[in-house]
Amino acid sequence: MSPQFTIPKTQKAAIVEATDAPLKLVDNHPVKQPEDLAPGECLVELDCSGVCHTDLHARKGDWPIPAKLPLIGGHEGVGRIVAIGQHTQNSPVKVGDRVGIKWLAYSCLDCEPCRKGLEQSCLKGQYSGFTVDGTFSQYVVSWVTHVTPIPDNLSSAEAASILCAGITVYRAIKYSKATIGDWIVLPGAGGGLGHLAVQYAVAMGLRVVAVDTGAEKKELVTKLGAEKWVDFRETKDLVKDIVEATDGYGAHAAVVTAANGQAYAQAVDYLRMGGTLMVVGLPARANLSADIFFTVVKSINIIGSYVGNRQDAREALEIAARGKVKCFYQLKSLAALSDTYEALAEGKIVGRIVLDMKQ
Average model confidence (pLDDT) for the chain? Predict the structure, then answer.
């Protein structure tokens, strides 16, 4: 027999009403009731939600594709299913299950990108905290086919950031063509995505060159297994330092998680012959600049990597559940979201911020 849950009529939520308006914190936002859920939908009572740089872009409206308004942001939520829409058939999850809410809220599973494993690029895709309301609230509506079961031995707070940051870097490394013993460069290594990328890369047998700035980030990435460190503010020649750090030939791969165009500018120069540049970090507006001559003669691969599909999510969580990857986070309340946005914009966040929805 399924557990029974008491579902309130209203909830706490952080709402973006307009990109130039202050973030609005309310405690009377409606909760969709079980009888109002469509077939295939589920209602999740959230324990927590991670905060991602994407949430800042959605809040500011500075991407080429704007988010819906008004908007409840967030796409790294973990909680329990408290209701499933009537007439839902063949649900892979049940009431009471602990699940994760990812960036990809819904995909049709039938268009060409979906059939080829690119569900995240679905032609009819819906995205949490962007095209549909997300996880900066106590309850969220999602789809039973797209919520991700959370392993029992992974806490909700630890799992939260794996659902976006972890999946994103795991997939990028997975498709970077780097193999055991290869060098991989991780610009933005001390950030939310970057510190997870260091750990996934080490777990996959790669040798890490961490690129970032500041003593605190250096200490973190070194502790996580990075073999080499390059401070982009202190170095006089970033390319030279990276090439020297990678046996004098350059790196086999680079996964750029930094959300600025400058981080991409020199990647082709520090990659070795046949190297791969994985394009991951999303600046608000920037062009990808690469020297065409050397991209060709060095046989460089440039690959865009966009979050991950449902299988990538399960793999990323399983690696974390086995203790190979651990998210370093600070737990705060929903009321701290505005300050978190400011710190993200200034590049002051080390690791990740997770919001406790029970506070």
Answer: 94
